[in-house]
Structure formats: structure tokens, C-alpha cells
Amino acid sequence: MNLNALKRKIPFNLANVIMYTVLILFAAFCIFPLLWTLVSSLKNNHEIFESPWGLPAVPQFINYWNAWVVGNIGRYFFNSAYIVTTAVIVSLIASSMAAYAIRRMIWKLSKHVMMFFLLGVMIPVHATLIPLYRLFNSADMVGSPVCLIIIYTAVSLPMSIFILGGFFKMLPRELEEAAVIDGYSVYRIFWEIIIPLSKPAIATVTIFNFIGFWNELLFALVFMSNVNYMTLPVGLTNFIGRYHTDYTGMLAAIMLSFVPSLLIYIFLHENIIKGIMSGSLKE
Amino acid sequence: MELMLKNKWIIFLFIAPALLIYTVVLFIPVLETIVTSFYEWNMFSVDKKFIGLNNFIMLFTRDSVFITSIKNTFLLMLMSVITQMPVAIILASILSTGVFGKKIFKTFYFVPNILSGAAIGLMWYFMYNSEFGLVNSFLKLIGLGSITRPWLGDENTVLWAIILVACWQFVGYHMILFLSAIEGIPDSVNESAIIDGAGRWRILWSITIPLIKPIIYVDAIMISTNSLKIFDLVYTLTAGQGGPNHASSVMALHMFTHAFRNYRFGYSSSSACVLLISCLIVTLLVNKIFKSESYT
Q: How far apart are CA B110 and CA A273, in angstroms?
């Protein structure tokens, strides 16, 4: 289909000119801020003021070193990676098990429990912030990464269970029947048959959870305000409001924080976009 | 096999972790927030005083920042719908006509959506810088140098500056949704319309949009509830202050400030309650608007 688009010549008429102009303008609007930040992060603090549109005379990679070490971005990176990866794994295990029980096992309350989980999609998480703080505070856990791991997992459960459940529902019953004949236990069926077959759904859930957790600010701000254990978004907020003059260093920090998301996007954008599009069709 | 799939213990084992975490971390706290909103409770004291609806009364009568926050939040929600949806629909409809470079455009439009609100806020914080920021430099470049100003430092412009950033972050997401919806419309529909002599605008307005109404409905709910909850952008763009003189404060920020800067748990819980109720009201409203049309 795309080959045809390449082969046919695009007629140079008013409608097309307008359409492409709109598309290109908006694309520029989306990308230019990122480009500007990248270019500016390689300037020194004088060039930023003197030549906002020019390229840096000599790319100042030292800005990135400053951001990583002096600005502590490296540590925040590690904290985020640890918390997010753990939360993604825990969420995956809990949600896949629950989705399996709801969709593949036979019990009367299964539909009700699913509805119960789906209610969570409507809950604005802000409404849980204060009681959760009290809860973890009384257990003296505020400042521990475990808080965020548990919270992020909980918040992601409704969506994850919904997506995985939808996928499980479509798997044929024959899978379990054949496995039982071969003497498989439920656990083996789950781990060795269902999960490997669900790679697309698992991939979708993993990607979305990873991005969502990595970018989260509010709860991380409340629970991880200790300078050593902050996540990346929280670390970035340190740069505002205080008297900082190393603008280029801060711009480098911003670029650094973009890297993981951009990497995931570059390699997995097909999956991401497909995930959203299929989600819309389900509605 | 039936017996195995009905085994109560196994079902319980599989469900338990998710159910436990979900109930304790999501469900119960919401109920707690509602209860706490009727108390006066300072974080450091052990006892709390039941004061009924006093918190709510204070919110609406004595707290000008709260009134501003509600106003701003709803304004933001309205402007988000107005600025993001039409642009997304137009872009999606253009892309659906099989233009050259569709994949590249799609990829570019969606990039802002995967970045963290904190990083985006910080980036635009610098872009709005009145001396070296991209916004003012751009305006000077195209000859509009006279309207440059400290966008984030001016009470009158700060909320609009934030609305622009929200637009930047989210249009791509809505566009992807609409693109998949529009591409789900069978070609025959468009072809017969063209045969009947309909121009592009007519097709978009009279055919495409009515056919993707379900997606518009879903998207409307998503935009509204998400903009009610907005926090990341406002916090980072305004250094946690909510703008000069709290001019761009939003509900989530108000709750956060009173809970974790002023340590008033009861009061901020009632703020959170108002947020909760607003989400419900908005969802019901959107439902009403969309479902009131009967399908013949």
C-alpha cells in the first residue's frame, strides 16, 4: 500500500499544499522543542543568551557529565530504574495470575471481581494519596522504594488485568484440555502454556506500565523526597525554584531523562501505537 | 479438568495478591479520604476533631486559592478539549487519506506523549524563559517581538502557557486514537460520498465525524478526567507555587500543598473529595451529552 504512495506522483494542488503544510507545521511544533533542548544543552551558558538560534561552537558534552554527577541525575536514574523495573515485574505477576483466575477458571464470582477491578480505572489516584501517606508513615516506610513499588503496582492492576484478561479470554479451551490429559497441573499450564502464548499482551502491558511508572511525579514527590532515593522526575523538580545558573547543565539533565523513554519509543513504537489503537477498538 | 479449574484454593491463590494490593492501596484509601474530609486533622497531632462540613464550607467561602484552582482546572479541561480534539481529528483525517510519510508524521506526533510531565514541564520552563527561551526567540524571529513577555511570570498568561504545553504533550495521543477509528471506516463509504460529489470538508463533517462518535465519546471522557487531575505540568512549570499569586493553581496542586506543605490532612482530604466529585460529575455530564442522541 505504501509502495503505491511512493510510486504515484503527488498532485501539486491547493488542497495538498494545505494538507502537507498543516502536517509539517505540526510535526515541527512537536519536534522543535526537543531539538532546541538538545542543541542548547550542548552550548555553554554564554552561547545560550547570545545565539539562541545558532549551533554551539564546540559541543559541551561536559554539561552531561555535570548533570549526571553533580546534578545527581545518575543516581536518580538508578533509583527510577530499580523501582520501575520491580513494579513492572510485580504488577505483571499479580495481574496475569488474577486475569487467569478470572477468565480461565470457573467460579461464580469471577465477573463480579472483574467489575470490581475495573472500577479502579475510574478512581483518580489523587484521592488515595493522603490515606496512603498516613498508612506508610505509621509503618515508618515513607522514603522506602517499597512504597512506590506497591503503589505503582496497585494503580496499574485494573488496566493490566483488563488487557491480559481480554487476551486470555480468546485463547482456546483446548489448551487446557490437552494439557490436563498430559498430566499438567494448573500451575504448569499457567507458566508453561498460557504465559508464553500471551507475549503480545504481556509486551503491551509491560511497555505501558514501564512508561507510566517512569514518568510518574505526584506520588514519587510525596514518598521519595530523600535526596538519595529520589526518582528521576522528582530529581528534575529540584532544578526549579532554586537559584541555579547552570542552565545548560539543567537542559542536559532534561535530555538525559528523555533517553529511556525515547529508546523504548524508537525500538517499540510499533507496539505502543498498536496497543493504543487496539485499546480504542475494544471500547 | 473441570474440577481443576474450579478448585477454590487455586483460584484464591491466583486472585489474592492482586485483590489484596488493589483493595488496600486503591479502594480503601478512597473511602478513607471521604471520611477524613469531615475532620480537622493536623498531621502531627494524634487526635482529630469532627467538624462535619466545615472543611467544605471553608473551601468554597474562605479559600480564594481554592476557588481559583477550581476555575483553572475546569478552564483547563475545557480548553484541552477545544484545542486538542479538533486538531487531533483534523490531523488524523489528513493522515488517513494515505499521504506520503504517514508513518513518520505519526511517529513525530506521538513522541511528546511518552515523555514525563516533569521533564516536559522543566523543558518548557526554559523555553518560556524571557531572555533565551525558544518561545520569545521564535516570536522575535517572526516579527512579533513586541508581544514577548515572561509568560510564566505574568498572572494573565501563565494558565494559557500551561494549556499550550498540555496541548503539546497530548495531541499526539488523541490523534492516534482517532486515526485508528477513522481507518476503521470502510472505504466504500467514502467512495460513495465522493461519487455523490462531496468535497473533503463535507466528508469530514457529515460522514467521518458522526461515524467515529463512540471514539469521540471515549476520548472526551479521557481528556476531561485527565485534565481534572493535572499536576505534573503545573507543578514543574510554576515551581510548585501554582503561578504568580497562585494564578494558575489547580485542584491537585491545592490538595498537595495543603497536605504536604501545610500538613492539614482533613482540609486537603476535602479538597481531594471535591476533585473526586468533579470527576464523577464530568463523567456523568459527558455521558449525558453523548448518550442523549438516539441511534436510529
A: 9
